[in-house]
Structures are given as C-alpha cells and as structure tokens.
Design brief:
Elements lengths: L8 H8 L3 H8 L7 H14 L5 H5 L5 E8 L5 H16 L3 E6 L4 H13 L2 E7 L6 H16 L3 E5 L8 E5 L1 H14 L5 E5 L5 H16 L9 E3 L4 H14 L5 E4 L2 H13 L9 E3 L16 E3 L2 H14 L8 E4 L2 E3 L12
Parallel strand pairs: 1-2, 1-3, 3-4, 4-5, 5-11, 6-7, 6-8, 8-9
Antiparallel strand pairs: 10-12
Length: 346
C-alpha cells in the first residue's frame, strides 16, 4: 500500500471508515474529533504514506533542502538559543530553516510535523519538552515513522518518552538535584518550587530531581510546596503571587525555568520582598538575560546553542537502525546574587 503513486484524502477516509470531513479535520490538526476516530485516521494515513499537501505530491519525490524546526514558544529565549544552534549547522550545510511555534499545544506539534512531511522538508528538529500523554506519543510517532519511511530525517531536543527518534537530552533531573544540594549547602531548609505543567517532561524531570536532592539532605518537599503553572514568564509571575498569598515560609524558591524565575522576581518585587534578603530565587537554563537582571539569577546553566547544534548534526547523520541515539548534555550550577544564606527573621 505504501507504493501507491497518488494516495488521496478519500483513500485515507475509506481505509479508516470515516467521512471525508472527519479525515480532513484530523489531518489538519483540529482537536474536536472523537479519540477513536482520530486514531483510525492517523493509522490509515501512516499506512498509506499519505501527504495531505497536493503541491508536495506534485513534486513527485523531489525533497527540498529545508529543515523544519518545531518549538514550543519562539518568545522563550531558551528555545531561541537552541534554534540558533540548529540554524548555525543548517547554514553550514546549505539548508533553509522554517520555524514553527506550537505555544505548548501538543496537537499543533503533530499538525506541524504532518505539514512539514507534506512539504517534503528533508529534516525535522523538535525543540522542547515531550508530553506525558500516550495518545500524543502514538499520534506523533505515526507521523514521524511515515515521514522517515519517505526518507526524512528527525532529531529532538529534550526527552520524548515513547517517540523513537535520535535525541539530545539535557540532564534536567541531575541538574535540578545538584541545585538542591547547593541550596542546602547555603543553609536553606524551607523550599518552594514554581513548576510548569507536569505533563511536560522537562518540568516533571526538574521537579523530580530537585525533590530527590532535597530528600538526600533530609528535607521533604511536599505537594503544598509546589505551585504548578504555565511554563512561561507570566506563569512564574502568577505562581509567585499564589505563593505569597498562601503565606508560605520558604526561604528559597526554585522556578523550573529562567523565564519563570524572571516572572517570579517581578512578583516578589511588587510585593515588597527583597531577593535574596527576604527570599532566595533560582532558575534553570541560563538564558543570556540572567546575568543582566538585578539581582543576577542563580541557575543551572545549559549550553543551549550546543543542544541545537548537536540535534542538527544527529539529524544530518540520518536515523539508521531501530535504536534511537541519545546524547546527554549535563548542566552546571551557577551561583549568582539572587541566592544567599537565609537571614534570621524577627
């Protein structure tokens, strides 16, 4: 069936036993489709190696020297830094880069991969956290498997559980664990965490690592100490506001990303709290602005551009065999002015 020269949307609908409209909604990334119907359409499309873009079909196999970069949020400096690394290597090899932002919507990620496959992009690089979602894993894997069967090359940055692609993985868990040890070393014993949604593997890994590091030092991080929010600057601001409203007694706050920490810093200032005199604050990633904010931000530094470079290199080397390659990149705790030993309070 994969050898059919001109597979149509009607063929997909027939194999999936759904209407033409339903097949179209699924393949266009529309979310209001019943789950069992969506899975049938995606499975049929993968089996038929269907390319929904008519223009791409007319190219009759002429792959373009383009790289499709799919990230969660292009406004986030950490994603921008990783994308810059991808672009640097792509430029050296004469590839044009197309950038798409999903705004943390897993359905958009699947839709963009489908569109890039239709456009016959030669390479796809996924930047950003995977999702703890079996349905998403299955749907994305179906798109990527069909894309690779057609000769496409794929790599990802960060952990994508259940999606078998070559991956560059920052050591989020161990980095957060090291940060916890460093904060304990400063004398802190009361902590709070501003976490992103736990279905994001990056947020979950950093929260888990920080909790493990505290536990090794004899400090328990309970659920009352975790303030879950959006993985954005505004998310960090609102989580810090919630923390203040709760009357939490933390002397040290860990935001699982630098952009969240910057939002938290604004909220703390507006509430009249001094950092680090009243409360210490730490982030994760080491985006460039962390050195310029006042106070400069303690963080776990990752070589962000290098993550992108290595992902692009993995993609260019191709995906051979059934076992995905994994390159692990360690972070380093960098202590700056936003953290200090806890002050005695009256």
């Amino acid at each position: 069936m994969n050898g059919r020269p001109h597979v149509t949307l009607e063929d997909v609908a027939t194999v999936a036993s759904v209407s033409l409209a339903t097949a179209s909604r699924v393949l266009n990334g529309t979310t209001n489709v019943r789950e069992d119907l969506r899975e049938r359409v995606l499975s049929a499309a993968a089996d038929l190696a269907y390319a929904p873009n008519v223009h791409a079909q007319a190219l009759a196999g002429a792959t373009r020297r383009t790289v499709g970069v799919v990230c969660h949020d292009v406004d986030d400096p950490s994603f921008a830094a990783v994308a810059r690394g991808v672009m640097r290597v792509a430029d050296e090899h004469g590839f044009l880069v197309m950038l798409a932002s999903t705004f943390h919507d897993p359905e958009k990620e699947i839709a963009y991969v489908s569109e890039l496959r239709a456009q016959r992009a030669s390479t796809i690089v996924l930047i950003g956290s995977g999702f703890e979602d079996r349905r998403w894993e299955k749907a994305l894997s179906a798109e990527l498997d069909a894309y690779r069967r057609g000769g496409g090359r794929v790599a990802a940055v960060s952990r994508h559980h259940g999606v078998k692609v070559d991956t560059v993985q920052p050591e989020n868990r161990s980095g957060a664990k090291d940060l916890a040890a460093a904060m304990l070393g400063l004398g802190h014993r009361r902590f709070a965490v501003l976490a992103g949604p736990r279905e994001l593997t990056t947020s979950l890994d950093r929260l888990t690592g920080f909790r493990e590091g505290l536990a090794e030092g004899g400090v328990e991080l309970s659920e009352k100490d975790v303030f879950e929010t959006e993985f954005t600057r505004d998310g960090g601001y609102f989580a810090a506001t919630e923390l203040l409203s709760s009357g939490h007694s933390a002397t040290c706050v860990f935001a699982v990303s630098d952009v969240m920490a910057i939002g938290a810093l604004s909220a703390l200032r507006e509430a009249g709290r001094s950092v680090p005199d009243d409360v210490s604050l730490a982030g994760f990633d080491d985006i460039s602005v962390t050195r310029d904010v006042n106070p400069s931000l303690t963080t776990v530094a990752l070589p962000l551009a290098r993550l992108g470079e290595q992902a692009m290199e993995l993609a260019l080397n191709g995906n051979s065999g059934n076992r995905a390659k994994v390159r692990r990149i360690a972070g380093e705790v960098v202590l700056r002015d936003s953290t200090s030993r806890p002050r005695r309070r009256r």
